[in-house]
Amino acid sequence: MPAMPLMSAADRCLELANRVRHALELLGYPDLNQISCEASTADEITLRGSTNSLYLRQAAHAVAQHVPGVQKVRNRIVVLDPVQPAA
């Protein structure tokens, strides 16, 4: 039986980012569909984007942290000021 080819470092990073992206999608919050996931190493993920909720920023971080293979999360998600209703 032929041996499975080893994944390149770039492929491992892409695979990790895809797993984190999928985990965020499973939360079901539309805001999180706009968050980008980038893996700079095979065990470090960076989240980028914006949301109107501190809770969603924290939830994205927690979910990413629990994806198998993730050792470090850099959370660059910006919480925007909520739109204030006109007085």
Lay out the secondary structure.
Layout: H1 9-27, E1 36-41, E2 44-51, H2 54-65, E3 72-79
Parallel strand pairs: 2-3
Antiparallel strand pairs: 1-2
Helix percent band: 25-40%
Task: Compute the number of helices.
Answer: 2
Main sheet strand line-up: 1-2-3
Mean pLDDT: 89
E-strand count: 3
Q: Would you list the SSEs in sequence order as H and E?
A: HEEHE
Q: Over the alpha carbons, how many angstroms does the gyration radius reach? A: 16 Å
* Most strands sheet: 3 strands, mixed
Strand share of the residues? 25-35%
Low-confidence stretches: none
Structural class of the helix and strand makeup? alpha+beta
N/C terminus separation: 72 Å
- Overall shape: it is elongated
What would you note in describing this structure?
This protein has 87 residues and is an alpha+beta fold. 36% of the residues lie in helices and 25% in strands. The chain has 2 helices and 3 strands; from the N terminus they run αββαβ. A 3-stranded mixed β-sheet has the order 1-2-3. β2, α2 and β3 form a beta-alpha-beta unit. The protein is elongated. The mean pLDDT is 89.
What attributes characterize this protein structure?
3-stranded mixed β-sheet; alpha+beta; 36% helix; single chain; 87 residues; 2 helices
Quick structural overview:
The protein is of the alpha+beta class and 87 residues long. It contains two helices and three strands, in the order αββαβ.
